[in-house]
Amino acid sequence: MFHQASQTVINYIFGGTGGTGGGGGVRGQGGDGGTGEAPALNYAITAQNVTMNTHPSFQNDTSAMHILHRAIAVDALYNSAERFPQPRCHPETRTELIEKLCRWVTDANQDHSIHWLHGPAGAGKSAIMQTLCERLQEAGRLGGSFFFKRGHSTCGNAKVLFATLAYQLALHRPKLKRAILRSVETDLSVLGRSLDVQLQNLILIPWKLADGSLPSALLIDGLDECDGHKIQQEILRLIGSTANKHHPALRIIVASRPEPHIRETFEEESLQGVADTTNIEQSFHDVWTYLRNEFSRIHREHFSMKNVPTPWPSPQILNLLVERSSGYFIYASTAIRFIDDEYFSPCKQLHIIIQNLPLDSESPFATLDQLYIQILKEVPSRHLGILSDIFSAVIHLSSCLRLRDMDELFGLEPGNVELTLRPLHSILQILEDKSGQLVIQVHHASFLDFLKDAARSSSFYVGSTGHKAKLGQSILNTLAYTYDNPRINLADFFFYWHVEGALSNVD
C-alpha cells in the first residue's frame, strides 16, 4: 500500500535532441544526429493524481533562444570577430550624412520607414553603416544589423537574414524577446520557412505585440553581395510591402551598389512612398581629411620617419592623391595600407604609388586599377605564375581559402602561398579561421571585380573559362594523388566540395 503524499511535486522534463524522424519525448530520448528539440513537458503530482500539460514551455526562455541562436549568422553582425578590424569613418568625415541618418531613425514623425543608401564600389558604404551602427547602439536605437559578404557561407546567405535580425531584436528589448521567442516556441519550423514567413513571425508580429513605438533601426549592408538578384529583390519587396503600413517605428536602412535590378525594385509601387534614398556623393574634402590624418599618424608611429621633415608628404602630393581618389575612399584607404607597411619605408612606398600615374581614361576605375596593378607588380616575377593560380582559386572557389590546402593544390612547399602573398597586405589579408587555419580574405569586393575584368586587370586577369578549366584540372590531380596516398586525409581538402562548381560550364 502506498501512503498518500501530502506534498505536491513539480518538475520539468525537457525533450532530447533527436534525429530525422525522431523527436524528444518524455524521457528525452531522440534518434542519432539531427537537431530537432522537443518541447518541454511540465507536470505536477499531488497524492495519486497526475496532471500533465503538453503545451510548449521553455524554461527561462533559454531553449528557444538557443534554437534561434543556432539559426543566425554571427559573423554578419556589425561587431563580430569575423569583421575585425571593422571599416569605420574617420571622426571628421561623413559627419553630415551620419547625422542626417541618425535623425531619420530617431524622428518619431518620419513618414518613410526605409532608407536606401547607395553608391559605387569604394564609396565607403560599409564604413558609413558601421559607424551608424555604433552611433545607434550608443543611443539605444539599434535593433540589429546584417553585413552581407559575397561568397561567404553564412554572411552571403539571405536565408538567415531575418532570423539574425530577430535574434538581435530579442536582445534589444525584453518585451520583444518574449514575443519573438513565443513565435519560436509555437512553431520550431519557422526558422526553416520562407523569408516572408520569417519576416512576419519573427519580426513584424512580435513588434506589433510588443507595442514597439520607440523608433529603432535594422541595418542591412551590402545587399548586392548576397545570394542572387532575385532574392535581393524579394527582400526589398518584403520589407517594402509591410514596413510603413503597420510598423512605422521600425526603420530599415539598406546599403548597396546602385545595381539596375535594385534600382528598378525601389521604383516599384510597393516601395513608392515608403523609401527615402541617399546617393553617397564624392567628397574630396573628406578624402583629404582622411589622408592628412593617416599620413600624420604614419609619420608619428613609424620608426623610419624620425628624420623626415614635416609636413609629409608635401601639400602638392597630398592634393594629387586626393585628385586620384575621385572623391572616394577605396583608393585612399588602399594607398594608406600599402604605404603603412612596417617592413618598408613609407617614403619609398609612397614614391612607388606616385611614380606611375594612370593615363587619361574614361573608365571611372582607371586610378584604382592603376593602383592595384602597381601593388601587384611588387610581387617578385618568379612568383607571378603561382599568383595567377591563387587568384583563380580566389575567384572561382566560393569559400574562404585555406593556405595549407592551396599549397597542396598547386604542389607547393608548405608556406609558399603565404610567402607569395606577403607584398599584397594592402589588398588582401591572411587571417585565422575558427579552426586555427590560415585563410585568404580580400579587403574589398572591387578587387574581385578587377580580377574578373580583362580590360581592367590586363595580365592579372583570371576570369576566363581557361583559368577555370586549369583550376579544375589541378583539383582533379590533387584528388587523384590523395586517393593513391592514404596518409593524406582527403577530408582536409576544402576544394573537394567545390569540384562540381569549379568544372561547371567549362567548354
TrEMBL record:
InterPro entries: NPHP3-like_N (IPR056884), P-loop_NTPase (IPR027417). Residues 101-257 form the Nephrocystin 3-like N-terminal domain. Keywords: Repeat. The keyword Repeat applies. It comes from the Eukaryota. This is Putative nwd2 protein.
